Amino acid sequence: MKAVGVAHVALAALLSGLALATQAQGGFPLKESVEASIHRGSIVFHNYCVTCHGMNADGQGRAAKLYSPRPANLRISPYSDDYKELIIRQGGKRVARSEFMPPWGEELTDEQIADVVAYLRTILTP
Protein backbone atom coordinates (compact mmCIF):
# COMPACT_ATOMS: atom_id res chain seq x y z
CA MET A 1 0.00 0.00 0.00
CA LYS A 2 2.87 2.39 0.79
CA ALA A 3 4.40 1.70 -2.61
CA VAL A 4 1.21 2.85 -4.35
CA GLY A 5 1.20 6.10 -2.29
CA VAL A 6 4.84 6.76 -3.12
CA ALA A 7 4.13 6.06 -6.79
CA HIS A 8 1.28 8.60 -6.76
CA VAL A 9 3.51 11.24 -5.18
CA ALA A 10 6.27 10.54 -7.71
CA LEU A 11 3.79 10.71 -10.60
CA ALA A 12 2.36 14.00 -9.32
CA ALA A 13 5.85 15.46 -9.01
CA LEU A 14 6.73 14.30 -12.52
CA LEU A 15 3.55 15.79 -14.00
CA SER A 16 4.00 19.13 -12.24
CA GLY A 17 7.61 19.21 -13.42
CA LEU A 18 6.45 18.58 -16.98
CA ALA A 19 3.89 21.37 -16.68
CA LEU A 20 6.57 23.79 -15.52
CA ALA A 21 8.88 22.63 -18.28
CA THR A 22 6.15 23.18 -20.86
CA GLN A 23 5.60 26.67 -19.50
CA ALA A 24 9.33 27.38 -19.65
CA GLN A 25 9.59 26.01 -23.20
CA GLY A 26 6.97 28.35 -24.66
CA GLY A 27 3.80 26.38 -23.96
CA PHE A 28 0.53 27.99 -23.03
CA PRO A 29 0.74 30.60 -20.28
CA LEU A 30 -0.81 29.86 -16.91
CA LYS A 31 -4.55 30.66 -16.80
CA GLU A 32 -4.12 33.35 -14.16
CA SER A 33 -1.34 35.15 -16.01
CA VAL A 34 -1.66 38.46 -17.83
CA GLU A 35 -0.44 36.76 -21.00
CA ALA A 36 -3.30 34.25 -20.86
CA SER A 37 -5.82 37.03 -20.29
CA ILE A 38 -4.51 38.94 -23.31
CA HIS A 39 -4.60 35.80 -25.45
CA ARG A 40 -8.19 35.01 -24.42
CA GLY A 41 -9.14 38.65 -24.96
CA SER A 42 -7.80 38.58 -28.52
CA ILE A 43 -9.94 35.51 -29.21
CA VAL A 44 -13.06 37.19 -27.84
CA PHE A 45 -12.26 40.38 -29.77
CA HIS A 46 -11.81 38.48 -33.04
CA ASN A 47 -15.09 36.62 -32.50
CA TYR A 48 -17.30 39.52 -31.40
CA CYS A 49 -15.74 42.84 -32.38
CA VAL A 50 -13.92 42.49 -35.69
CA THR A 51 -16.97 42.95 -37.92
CA CYS A 52 -17.28 46.57 -36.82
CA HIS A 53 -13.93 47.51 -35.28
CA GLY A 54 -11.79 45.63 -37.83
CA MET A 55 -8.96 43.11 -37.61
CA ASN A 56 -6.61 45.90 -36.54
CA ALA A 57 -9.15 47.42 -34.11
CA ASP A 58 -8.92 50.64 -36.11
CA GLY A 59 -12.67 51.07 -36.66
CA GLN A 60 -12.45 49.83 -40.26
CA GLY A 61 -14.34 46.55 -40.06
CA ARG A 62 -16.53 45.24 -42.88
CA ALA A 63 -19.68 46.69 -41.30
CA ALA A 64 -18.12 50.03 -40.29
CA LYS A 65 -19.38 51.88 -43.33
CA LEU A 66 -22.96 51.04 -42.37
CA TYR A 67 -22.81 53.15 -39.23
CA SER A 68 -22.73 56.83 -38.44
CA PRO A 69 -20.88 57.48 -36.26
CA ARG A 70 -18.32 54.92 -37.37
CA PRO A 71 -17.00 52.37 -34.85
CA ALA A 72 -14.23 53.64 -32.61
CA ASN A 73 -10.57 53.26 -33.48
CA LEU A 74 -9.58 51.27 -30.40
CA ARG A 75 -5.86 51.66 -31.13
CA ILE A 76 -6.01 55.34 -30.15
CA SER A 77 -8.86 55.27 -27.62
CA PRO A 78 -8.27 57.80 -24.81
CA TYR A 79 -10.67 56.06 -22.42
CA SER A 80 -9.78 54.25 -19.20
CA ASP A 81 -10.06 50.50 -18.80
CA ASP A 82 -13.06 51.00 -16.49
CA TYR A 83 -14.88 53.06 -19.11
CA LYS A 84 -14.09 50.54 -21.85
CA GLU A 85 -15.48 47.80 -19.63
CA LEU A 86 -18.64 49.87 -19.08
CA ILE A 87 -19.09 50.42 -22.83
CA ILE A 88 -18.60 46.71 -23.55
CA ARG A 89 -20.93 45.65 -20.75
CA GLN A 90 -23.73 48.22 -21.23
CA GLY A 91 -23.40 49.20 -24.89
CA GLY A 92 -22.79 52.60 -26.41
CA LYS A 93 -26.23 54.10 -25.99
CA ARG A 94 -26.26 53.61 -22.19
CA VAL A 95 -23.03 55.60 -21.83
CA ALA A 96 -23.87 58.36 -24.33
CA ARG A 97 -21.82 56.84 -27.13
CA SER A 98 -22.94 55.25 -30.40
CA GLU A 99 -26.28 53.49 -30.22
CA PHE A 100 -24.86 50.87 -32.59
CA MET A 101 -22.37 49.50 -30.05
CA PRO A 102 -24.32 46.58 -28.59
CA PRO A 103 -24.35 45.73 -24.89
CA TRP A 104 -22.35 42.52 -24.42
CA GLY A 105 -22.89 42.20 -20.66
CA GLU A 106 -25.42 39.40 -20.94
CA GLU A 107 -23.52 37.58 -23.69
CA LEU A 108 -19.95 37.71 -22.34
CA THR A 109 -18.76 36.63 -18.92
CA ASP A 110 -17.00 39.00 -16.54
CA GLU A 111 -13.75 37.20 -17.34
CA GLN A 112 -14.24 37.61 -21.09
CA ILE A 113 -14.92 41.33 -20.72
CA ALA A 114 -11.84 41.78 -18.52
CA ASP A 115 -9.81 39.78 -21.05
CA VAL A 116 -10.95 42.00 -23.95
CA VAL A 117 -9.98 45.11 -21.98
CA ALA A 118 -6.57 43.54 -21.26
CA TYR A 119 -6.15 42.82 -24.99
CA LEU A 120 -7.16 46.36 -25.96
CA ARG A 121 -4.54 47.74 -23.58
CA THR A 122 -1.84 45.91 -25.56
CA ILE A 123 -2.82 47.35 -28.95
CA LEU A 124 -2.92 51.02 -27.99
CA THR A 125 -0.73 53.21 -30.17
CA PRO A 126 1.20 55.70 -28.04
Number of beta-strand segments: 0
Major sheet characteristics: none
CATH class of the largest domain: Mainly Alpha
Indicate the mean pLDDT.
85
Number of domain modules: 2
Query: Which CATH-level-2 architecture of the largest domain?
Result: Orthogonal Bundle
3D architecture notes:
This protein has 126 residues and is an all-alpha fold. It has two domains: 1-29; 31-123, Orthogonal Bundle (Cytochrome Bc1 Complex, Chain D, domain 2), CATH 1.10.760. It has five helices and no strands. α2 crosses α5 (110-123) and α4 crosses α5 (110-123). The longest helix has 23 residues, at 2-24. The radius of gyration is 20 Å and the shape is globular. Mean pLDDT is 85; it is low at 4-22.
Overview features:
single chain, 126 residues, Cytochrome Bc1 Complex, Chain D, domain 2, globular
What can be said about this structure in brief?
The chain is mainly α and 126 residues long. It has two domains: 29 residues; 93 residues, Cytochrome Bc1 Complex, Chain D, domain 2, CATH 1.10.760. 52% of the residues lie in helices and 0% in strands.
